[in-house]
Amino acid sequence: MMFSRREMLAGGATGLAGLTLGSSLWARAQMLDTAYVNATVWTGEGMPVQRSAIGIAGGRIAAIGAAAVKGQSGKTTRIIDLGGAFVMPGFTDAHTHFLTGSYLLSQPNLREAKSPQEFARVVGEAAKALKPGQWLQGGSWDAELWGGELPDRSWMDPVTPNTPVAVQRLDLHMLALNSLALKLAGIDRNTPDVPGGMIVRDKDGNPTGILKDAAMDLVKRAIPAPTDADKEDAARRGIAHGLSRGVVQVHTTELDWITHDTLRRLRSKGETDMRFYSFVPLQDWAKLKALIEAEGRGDDWVRWGGLKLQYDGSLGSRTAMFYRPYDDAPDNSGFPIHKRADVQQWTNDADAAGLQITIHGIGDKANDEALDIFAATAAKNGRRDRRFRIEHAQHLAPAAIPRFARQQVIASVQPYHAIDDGRWAIQRVGAERLKGTYAFKSLLDAGAKVAFGSDWPVAPLDPLTGVAAAVLRQTIDGANPGGWLPEQKISMLQALHAYTATNAFAGFSDDRMGLLKPGMLADFAVLDADLFAIDPARIGATKVLRTIVGGRQRFGEGSDI
Predict the structure, then answer these.
(1) Domain 228-513 adopts which CATH fold?
(2) Phi and psi dihedrals of 203, rounded to 5?
(3) Which residues belong to any copy of the Amidohydrolase domain (predicted)?
């Protein structure tokens, strides 16, 4: 059964207000269902002050520390000895394209293709496993791995004569199509570009097979939609994958309703094992408002109330919006996906309806304009706890950094992108503009709230990989052992806080998630190493042993499911 926010609030101690006021009373009244002992428990509060035990009752944390756990244990309490393992609040990933990533778990992966020949080989092998006419999707290709030349339909045509192909760049801002896919989508030399997108053409004006940003919709309409059962099966694979990485919640920052509807169907069938906070398109704010008025905001398994808008493109696709042209494309400075006046109106209206808003901003101009839009909305609609966000906040002009704190805008960033893009970003924007790139420490020093995510499947759904990226800043090609832009390294404490407490705040769940203390939801990860005690170089080798969500072990040996 799902409960609306109104119903939860009306429920007293199970609602938002009741949890904060009544957590200590609630905890004292509980006999523990499960006690995890012989552990190193980091509660997530401040410095790594650690305890040795944690107790659970009714899906919530009821006791912390050996004495409290012993005092609330009884004959029916299940005792689990963790053998000294490290316990911490479960990870939240604040930025995912969850259903897309879930599909890719069973689709061809071009992430490791390092040449056009390897690209074609992987596509050809994948096509052999499909029925004639069945679309080949997946992808995650990265042209930078073979020098930057974009894929061409001629690479794929010889190995896919009967298979339409539409494989995406790893940043999800480009699709590579073969000739059959172009034909089925009705795209030829006479097809005009669309606002906010681009059809890449050869010297004769014919499509090469590359579609950028909004132009991708031209082919997406031609691809048969998966069934509801297909979507749910994919989501379940993604949930299992995330739980194995210690993830207890993800924010699904989408530009459609497909993931939202899929998650709601899953929730109607029971607990989803992982928690979700769903974002839908900003343009659809009125539809979301009507849903909330009719049904509330979901529950702690699947919640909604957030809206997202993509304002510009990506650095890799040269569609992110900058004040000055790209260094390696002097006739191009990127472009907006939507008209600024429209974005301002949507933001004003959605905010007035009490909805949370986040804007995708990559380039320095896009980020400045997003901050301006938020400032104008706040001035128009008055003070309230709105928690505006900018997704990526990737390339910032120096004056933008203090604005995040001053305007109380959350910077929702992805550490892995820094160590990925760091291999080639200087080619795009030059050394001077890198000073505001992936500026995690500068934002924190300015007093801004910095939330961490992956952008899965653009980057791995693996917070430990993100923690390593933020702490070490070593690019994935090994070329920067001392760290890329090392002045932006942050501490282990700051990185873990961003993946737990700050992410809870960024999703309006900080009253019940992100920390381990009595009354909070019993969501935590058990690791094989104390992250505060190990050499940071070993972060990536740390293993998740167990993931507990709602007091039940959802991943690990002896899981409850």
Answers:
(1) TIM Barrel (3.20.20)
(2) -65, -20
(3) 78-553
Measuring CA to CA, which residue among 104, 8, 115 is closest to residue 457?
104
Residues in the chain: 561
Mean pLDDT, residues 438-447 taken together: 98
Sheet containing 174-177: give its strands across: 139-141, 166-169, 174-177, 207-213, 197-201
Are 523 and 548 within 8 A, CB to CB?
yes
Q: Which CATH architecture has domain 19-90+515-560?
A: Roll (2.30)
- CATH 3.40.430.10 is the classification of domain 134-221: no
Tens-place pLDDT, residues 373-412: 999 999 999 999 999 999 999 999 999 999 999 999 999 9
Q: Where are the domains of the chain?
A: 19-90+515-560, 134-221, 228-513
Q: Tokens 């510009």 map to which residue?
A: 312
The residues facing 61 across adjacent strands are 56
**pLDDT class for 15, splitting at 50, 70, 90?**
very low
Q: Which of 189, 186, 122 is nearest to 160 (CA)?
A: 122
Q: What angle do CA 412, 150, 155 make, to 5 degrees?
A: 130
pLDDT tens digits, one per residue of 347-368: 999 999 999 999 999 999 999 9
Predicted TM-score (pTM) of this structure: 0.86
Are 560 and 554 in contact, with CB atoms under 8 Å apart?
yes
Condensed to tens digits (0 to 9), the pLDDT of residues 209-230 reads: 999 999 999 999 999 989 999 9
Residues 6+ apart with CB under 8 A from 85: 39, 40, 526, 527, 528, 545, 546
| Helix, strand, coil percent content, the chain, rounded in steps of 5 | 35, 20, 40
Compute the mean pLDDT over every residue in the chain, rounded to the nearest whole number.
Answer: 93
